[in-house]
Design a protein that fits this description.
The complex is a heterodimer of chains A (280) and B (218).
Chain A (H helix, E strand, L loop, with lengths): L1 H10 L1 H4 L15 H17 L2 H15 L6 H15 L4 H13 L5 E7 H6 L3 H14 L5 E7 L3 H11 L9 H23 L4 H5 L9 H24 L7 H13 L3 H18 L1
Antiparallel strand pairs in A: 1-2
Chain B lengths: L2 H22 L3 H22 L2 H33 L12 E5 L4 E3 L7 E12 L4 E3 L4 E2 L15 E13 H10 L1 H36 L3
Antiparallel strand pairs in B: 1-6, 2-6, 3-4, 3-5, 3-6
Helix pairs in contact in B: 1-2, 2-3, 3-5, 4-5
The chains are: A mainly alpha (280), B alpha+beta (218).
């Protein structure tokens, strides 16, 4: 009887969010000094999504942990930034966070502003994609939506539980699809840097810091990151742009992005490209 | 006792046997065959007894079952033919969905967990790490399904806008589970393609060794 129940649980696992994956461990090759930090990241990812998601983190980290050309500092940077980017901010995460703090005896209430596309992007793809497309056509993607997260009252906690329960469908959301593509592209750029420009690998890993938080700041950081990668990093790896000091160029653009100077950032990318082409 | 009453009594008994038999089938082809037989019997009973709703229902289900059975048999035949001829994977096309790609778009990255395979329909694509351009008609990622790690070994980038067909490993696994004969031939085909790749690599290694030996000073 037990096995029949198990079979039905497996059949409905996508719907109920049951994750049968074993808890992943710190991969072999991670230096002793980093093991505690990686273990903490794994625990955070399990709380954020589940063991399968933490396993994906371990799998991605293993690609670099087994390499001889990746030192402890670079591996630490990748592990830290990847964990941060994999635990991206969305309404589900804020609800989870409020519930966790309330469980620890410290109930809080806060108000967060999201863009309309962020809210629709967090919904399961089948519902989220049509809403996002409609939103785009109507030109409403930038509309701000204010949401209250209240763990101080029973009704508030019930609403938070409902919002946090959307976690089981997070991996089917439009936002997750774009976050997954972003993480893979970032890791790919680090990998190509290790093969073509090893001195710039740390600077490229640090570009993840350009993307922070949610709302307009997140969108701007993301746009800056793509401008940097498409304008300087990728053409250099493809051999069409001979940038002599790639690490320096990347660091300069990252600093401008973190200052919020998007216009100067575009000008800096254009200047670096021009200098590189002139130098060639 | 009139004819219609007799037909109803014996027909119901006969149909019950076929319905039970249908539900006991473990794989798709026998299940469809028994489904068709049940449809035919029920139509045959519904005509003399004037049970028109049953007639309409099974009149719809019969062509559906026949079509699905034809699809499955066609698939097995095509895979079997492919194993014995050019090792092509064209038979997979009816199960794939079309997707357009823009220039610069990356279909997958090296070391990423593989979940689907692609068939190139139009445009230009290259494998970034090995700098190899793939021709139209190439299938990418079919061996990833059978590898235990499910990892991509190269990055595939679109360099000129076009279209690809894609099918997820889960969909192929479903075909595999539904139809053991398909699974058997699919394994044979995948192994043959793998051996073909090994053969090409051995040829290239032999050429490389020969070139090095020729270039070495006497």
């Amino acid at each position: 009887m037990n096995s029949i129940a198990d079979s039905f649980r497996f059949l409905l696992s996508d719907l109920t969010g049951v994750d049968d994956c074993a808890t992943p461990t710190v991969p072999i090759g991670v230096p002793e000094a980093l093991r505690a930090e990686v273990a903490e990241a794994i625990a955070a990812l399990i709380a954020y999504q589940g063991p399968s998601y933490a396993e994906l983190y371990v799998h991605r980290l293993r690609r670099f942990a087994r390499r001889r050309d990746v030192d402890a500092a670079l591996l630490g940077l990748i592990a830290r930034e990847m964990a941060r980017r994999m635990c991206y901010d969305d309404p589900i995460r804020i609800a989870q966070h409020h519930l966790a703090t309330a469980h620890g005896g410290d109930a809080v209430m806060s108000r967060h502003r999201f863009r309309l596309d962020e809210l629709f992007g967090a919904l399961p793809g089948k519902i989220g994609w049509p809403l996002l497309l409609g939103c785009e056509r109507a030109g409403w993607t930038h509309l701000p939506v204010s949401m209250r997260f209240n763990a101080c009252s029973g009704a508030g906690r019930l609403r938070l539980r409902l919002e946090a329960s959307l976690r089981r469908w997070r991996l089917f959301s439009a936002r997750y699809a774009s976050e997954r593509a972003w993480v893979e592209r970032w890791l790919h750029m680090i990998d190509r840097s290790l093969a073509k420009r090893p001195a710039a690998a740390s600077a490229i890993a640090a570009t993840a810091m350009m993307i922070q938080g949610s709302g307009d700041g997140y969108r701007r950081g993301l746009a800056d990151w793509h401008a940097l990668i498409d304008g300087i990093v990728k053409p250099t790896f493809d051999g069409v742009l001979p940038v002599a000091d790639l690490a320096g160029a990347v660091t300069e653009v990252v600093a401008l992005s973190r200052e919020g100077a998007s216009r100067q950032l575009v000008a800096a990318i254009a200047r670096i490209r021009e200098d590189a082409n002139r130098g060639a | 006792m009139d004819v219609s009453h007799l037909a109803q009594t014996f027909g119901s008994l006969f149909v019950s046997i076929f319905v039970v038999a249908t539900y006991t089938m473990k794989t798709m082809i026998p299940l469809r065959v028994f489904g068709i037989l049940t449809n035919v019997i029920l139509i045959a009973i519904a005509i003399p007894t004037h049970h028109y709703p049953t007639l309409v229902l099974h009149g719809i289900l019969l062509p559906l079952n026949v079509y699905r059975l034809h699809e499955m048999l066609q698939l097995v035949r095509d895979v079997k033919k492919s194993v014995n001829s050019d090792l092509s994977m064209d038979w997979l096309k009816p199960f794939m969905t079309k997707r357009t790609c823009k220039a610069g778009e990356v279909l997958f990255y090296k070391d990423e967990k593989a979940e689907e395979m692609f068939y190139i329909v139009s445009g230009r694509y290259h494998l970034v790490e090995s700098e190899i351009e793939l021709p139209v008609g190439a299938l990418v990622g079919e061996l990833g399904m059978l590898s235990p790690t499910h990892e991509r070994t190269q990055t595939l980038e679109c360099i000129e806008a076009g279209a690809v067909l894609s099918v997820t490993y889960t969909q192929v696994e479903e075909l595999f589970v539904q139809n053991p004969e398909f699974g058997f031939y699919f394994l044979k085909l995948a192994s043959a393609r793998l051996f073909e790749n090994i053969g090409k690599l051995e040829e290239r290694l032999a050429e490389y060794t020969y070139d090095r030996a020729s270039a070495a000073p006497a």
